[in-house]
Amino acid sequence: MKKLIFMLWLSVLSMPFMGIKGGIYLFLGILASYGIYFLLVNIFGKINKPAIPVNIKFIFTALIAVSFIFPFLVKDYYTDVAILVCIYIILALGVNIVIGYSGLLHLGFAAFYGIGAYTNALLTTHFGFGFWSALPLTLIVTSVSGFLLAVPSFRLRGDYLAIVTLGFGEIIRLVLNNWDSVTRGPNGISNIPSPFILGFEISSLMSYYYLVLFFVFLAAFIVNRVHRSRTGRAWLSIREDETAAEAMGINTKKYKFMALTFGAFWAGLAGALFASKMHFVSPESFSFMESVFVVCMIILGGLGSIPGVILGSLILVLLPELLREFQSYRMLALGIGLVLMMIFRPQGLIRSKDA
Amino acid sequence: MLLQQIINGLTVGGVYALIALGYTLVYGILELINFAHGEIYMIGAYLGFIFLGIFTASGLTQYSLILSLFLTFVMSIIVCSAYGFTIEKLAYKPLRNAPRLNPLISAIGVSIFLQNYVMLTQGATDKVFPHVIPVTKIEFSNVTMTTLQLFIIIVSLLLMTMLHLFIMKTKTGKAMRAVAQDKVMASLLGIDIDRIISVTFIIGSGLAAVAGLMVAMYYGLVNYSIGYIAGIKAFTAAVLGGIWSIPGAMVGGFLLGLIESLGASYLSSEYKDAYAFIVLILILLVKPTGLFGRSEGDKR
């Protein structure tokens, strides 16, 4: 009875927006889905703990194996999507260092991604750099911006840090949007060249896929090694209890600097790869929603778990591509998904071992 | 010119202050940045648009403008409060004892959901708010002020005073202050925490509804995306004044409105939205407790 009243309440609430008819449909819809859920539970018994029964290691070995021959198996379109997945994995690995390992909720990561993309775009189009000669500079610029943004994290914790980093992200986007003489404003920068390796232009989808895949492996390997080092353990201790970590003699400032610099480094790499893949950058690609999207990836996959981050990026990039016809509903679903995830499985799909 | 900008700034500032009150109340009690609050404000603006449309279509507006405006306000406040109440029950209550990041992420989820819900049901284009309210200009020397601006400033001041009296004088207000100070102790003393939290969300959402409606009237446009930026600015106002301080939220809101309008006219209007963020970052770095805030030691 209580549930019925609740459903009725929800549909009445939606009436101003959806009309009386829409509200009634919503009520019937919720009722029907609840009925189906009720039936399923009665037939199959209560869903036991949403543990992942299959062996994660096996799946990942298979995934890695498939990733090597992937472009030969599928149409070009899917290779294109796979490149995007790879770029997001690199970005998400960077965000994971800051949010997942060090526990600093950073909501402005799109800024580092954007700085990386724009630095690459400007260096290659205005100053005649090639991709490879621009890359070190790009990485230095983004790392330094990460280093500078570590300063607020000394005094602010939790949600206050979140809102400051969000503000930083917005400021960067506004600068990109309004500094017409350099960034060409909302029109963006086009004609960004492809990278060259040994005189060969990496412009075909397949060759670019392998280039990006190489960087994914590199990033996953390095991040994993750092995570298991003394530095990684220091980050975890800051996440668990900053005061205790400080009492144990960990220089929290130093490790926060390191976390943000290192995280921004990977975001910069992802940005540079994105710019040279798309041959075009504009401020729209680096909005607040982009930051939230990446945070969703690592939360969905499992904070602090590298397989989780990879899985999360895979799911969140692939799903919208597969569900093209429901495109307008995907953000709606993302919002509900975030809330449900927080309530029912806050540790994500793959729980990090040290969580 | 200067005086004109000050009047414009105060108008917008009053709106920021009203939204900021919702943030400050919720943050004071739950220590949660309610990201969805900006969306509630946006929903308030839409509800005003929808209800006024209904009243105009049914002929009530032609019969009595004051009555239909009054009913629009009342209905928007009721429905918005219901939204705030429901959101708290669905998305925040189950997470009350979870780590602090979880409700925050849940709030971001709610915000994304509400934005897209309104976009899908009402369309992505700007809605033109019906021009039923007669606006007369009051001019003195070279400054013009519309009656609407005067209305916004007066209503926001009035509501803030009422809220301040409510918090300070009534029993529920006293209980709210107690819960904000110490939840466990308050519940030991027989205060129903769940009820107080619900009341907080209802009041905050009601104020946001008024803010949304007034902005819709002022600019004449509503769009599903107005909530996010207004929410962030209002939060800045709350932090500027000092969180969990009602006079602080008022002063913060008006100050932010002034900074924005003066900055836009004297520095650069392109970076209008950035001023709020710059102010926010500076305050948090220099004086995290804000102008009227209490120090909370380790909490931030």
Walkthrough of the structure:
- The complex is a heterodimer of chains A (355) and B (300).
- Chain A is mostly helical and 355 residues long.
- The mean pLDDT of chain A is 83.
- In chain A, helix 3 (76-101) packs antiparallel against helix 12 (252-278), helix 4 (109-126) packs across helix 12 (252-278) and helix 13 crosses helix 14.
- In chain A, the strands form 2 sheets. A two-stranded antiparallel ribbon of chain A has the order 1-4.
- Chain A has helices at residues 2-44, 56-73, 76-101, 109-126, 131-149, 152-155, 158-178, 180-183, 205-227, 230-240, 242-247, 252-278, 288-301, 306-322, 327-344; strands at residues 189-190, 196-197, 200-201, 280-281.
- Chain A is globular.
- Chain A folds into 2 domains: 1-48; 56-344, ABC transporter involved in vitamin B12 uptake, BtuC.
- With 300 residues, chain B is mainly alpha-helical.
- Chain B has one domain (2-299): ABC transporter involved in vitamin B12 uptake, BtuC (Orthogonal Bundle).
- In chain B, 74% of the residues lie in helices and 4% in strands.
- Chain B contains 12 helices and 4 strands; from the N terminus they run H-H-H-H-H-E-E-E-H-H-H-H-E-H-H-H.
- Chain B has a two-stranded antiparallel ribbon.
- In chain B, helix 1 runs antiparallel to helix 9 and helix 1 packs across helix 10.
- Chain B is globular.
- The interface between A and B is large, with 49 and 58 residues.
